[in-house]
Design a protein that fits this description.
Blueprint (H helix, E strand, L loop, with lengths): L8 E7 L5 H16 L3 E5 L5 H11 L8 H25 L3 E5 L2 H11 L4 H12 L6 E6 L2 H12 L12 H17 L4 E5 L4 H15 L2 H13 L1
Parallel strand pairs: 1-3, 1-4, 2-3, 4-5
Bound molecules: P1-(5'-adenosyl)P5-(5'-thymidyl)pentaphosphate (T5A).
């Protein structure tokens, strides 16, 4: 009889600019590959599929900015629909672990809390695009916006800031408050991570949260090792 794959696990990383999400996605992916015995897919938004990457380019170049936050939210949502259909849902159906650098909470925080798009519209878009494919766990990397922007600037060197990095500090302060409000409103799904520490300390906090919230990831590995013995 064909073995039924375990349920896929969907983990998202959220936070302001330069919070360290990409760094920590790569570290957690390595850890989970070693410890869970499962396939791990790392991806990002906007992007993650060929079409969504095209939309990403236009959004980060600021092409949609003149149309306002609703139009930008529509484009982030269009990219998300393709990403879900082509990459995220197929991987979850195969029982894989999907780590995603930003997802629907970024639309809530950037276009909603910081950009001024009303929460009902943001929720309606999320409902139709995301449906039942909600994250099992969302790690919200939290740090003062000045620190995150300084990290992003240092990494970019002399390059021009992108569409959202170029926003005023007030925007980034609303963004941080928006992410913190999401963490407070949905404590079962979200964990707020102190991202101001060194990368190793942030990684340790993330590992501890994942092991506490998703113990089955590690139990299955132990069982399959026993099965193989
Ligand atoms: N957006 C996205 C929306 O407005 N709505 C949406 O719905 C979605 C999905 C995406 C932009 O789109 C917006 C949000 C964004 O503005 P992006 O380039 O993907 O653009 O931007 P970010 O996701 O913000 O990516 P960044 O690369 O800027 O930030 P990360 O991934 O949080 O940070 P990371 O890991 O690249 O680190 C940045 C720098 O800091 C260092 C790293 O080495 C790197 O140089 N660093 C640390 N330094 C000190 N201490 C630590 N703990 C560090 N961790 C990393």
């Amino acid at each position: 009889m064909k073995a039924v794959p375990p349920a896929g696990v969907f983990i998202t990383f959220e936070g302001g600019e330069g919070a360290g999400k990409s760094t920590q996605v790569a570290r957690l992916a390595r850890h989970l590959r070693e410890r869970s015995g499962r396939e791990v897919v790392s991806t990002r938004e906007p992007g993650g599929s060929a079409r969504a990457e095209e939309i990403r380019e236009a959004l980060l170049a600021g092409l949609a900015k003149p149309y306002g936050p609703f139009a930008e939210a529509l484009l982030f949502t269009a990219a998300r629909i393709d990403h879900l259909d082509r990459l995220i849902r197929p991987a979850l159906r195969r029982g894989e672990i999907v780590l995603c650098d930003r997802f629907a909470d970024s639309t809530r925080a950037y276009q909603g809390a910081a950009g001024g798009l009303d929460a009902r519209t943001v929720r309606a878009l999320e409902r139709v695009a995301v449906g039942e494919t909600r994250p099992d766990l969302t790690l919200i990397l939290d740090l003062p916006p000045e620190a995150g922007l300084a990290r992003a600037r240092a990494r970019a060197g002399e390059g021009a800031p992108d569409r959202f990095e170029a926003e005023a500090l007030g925007f980034h302060a609303r963004l941080r408050a928006g992410f913190r409000a999401i963490a407070e409103a949905e404590p079962d799904r979200c964990a707020l991570i102190d991202a101001a520490h060194e990368p190793d300390a942030v990684e340790a906090e993330i590992r501890a949260v994942v092991e506490a919230r998703l113990p089955s990831l590690f139990r299955n590995a132990t069982e399959s090792r026993h099965d193989a013995a």
